[in-house]
Amino acid sequence: MKKASNILWGLILIAVGVIFALKATNVIDINFFFDGWWTLFIIVPSFVSLFTQREKLGGIIGLGIGTFLLLCCQGILDFTLMWKLMLPAVIVVIGLKMVLGGIFGNKTSEVFTQMKADGKQPKVGCATFSGYNMNFDGEIFDGAELTAVFGGVDCDLRHAIIEKDCAIQVSAIFGGIKILVPDHVNVKVNSNSIFGGITNKTAAKKDAVTLYVSGTCLFGGVEIK
């Protein structure tokens, strides 16, 4: 992901440099400070994130907002209409992602369903206006549900016994969740996020048991490392 990000930003900087050079030599005549030029600081990073980030929803929302603002600055759309449509648009985007997730499957749900079939229940960790620490040293881990509302949850799996695919369902609402995983475990993420998200700092691993992390972040974040 980092390599792709460097390449895209490099190409963008090269293009900008070439355009400045052509304008300086009077080969082309471009007004860089057109109405709404500042929206490019929203549009360009959001566009790049679609190709470099695992979590796409934030990029889609940012791209939509940036494009809408640009059209408003150009007089094509009305600013008042933007504020009326922003919340419905965000809700629709989240709904579409949930529908697509249901169509193409959710491994977290599959893991939890199998757990219940085996007579097991996921561990529950919840922090509301507080902090909560979960430690699974020496325990067999199959799955957990973590919720942080104006609080924080720390889940330590570094010394847990993980012998097969497992899952964690997360909900971070104005809160934060930290998940520490063993070196031999692969991590896959799927989330619905608004002004927040899940950051996966682990390296991808082949032929390894997988921890599936999915859930919702609303003005909150989840860090996996």
Would you write up a description of this structure?
This protein has helices at 2-24, 40-52, 57-73, 79-104, 107-117, and strands spanning 123-128, 131-135, 143-149, 152-156, 166-173, 176-180, 186-194, 197-200, 210-218, 221-224. The radius of gyration is 22 Å and the shape is elongated. The chain contains 5 helices and 10 strands. The chain is of the alpha/beta class. The mean pLDDT is 82. The protein has a 5-stranded parallel sheet.
Question: In brief, what are we looking at here?
Answer:
This protein has 225 residues and is α/β, with parallel strands linked by helices. It contains five helices and ten strands. A five-stranded parallel sheet has the order 1-3-5-9-7. The chain has a five-stranded parallel sheet with strand order 2-4-6-10-8, with no helix packed on it.
Runs with pLDDT <50, length 5+? none
Structural class: alpha/beta
Q: How large, in whole angstroms, is the Cα Rg?
A: 22 Å
Largest sheet: 5 strands, parallel
Binned, the helix content reads 40-55%
User: What is the helix/strand order?
Assistant: HHHHHEEEEEEEEEE
**Whole-number mean pLDDT:** 82
Shape label: elongated
Provide a count of the helices: 5
How far from one another are the termini?
A: 16 Å
Number of strands: 10
Question: What brief labels describe this structure?
Answer:
225 residues, alpha/beta, 5-stranded parallel β-sheet, 5 helices
Secondary structure layout:
Elements: H1 2-24, H2 40-52, H3 57-73, H4 79-104, H5 107-117, E1 123-128, E2 131-135, E3 143-149, E4 152-156, E5 166-173, E6 176-180, E7 186-194, E8 197-200, E9 210-218, E10 221-224
Parallel strand pairs: 1-3, 2-4, 3-5, 4-6, 5-9, 6-10, 7-9, 8-10
Helix pairs in contact: 1-2, 2-3, 3-4
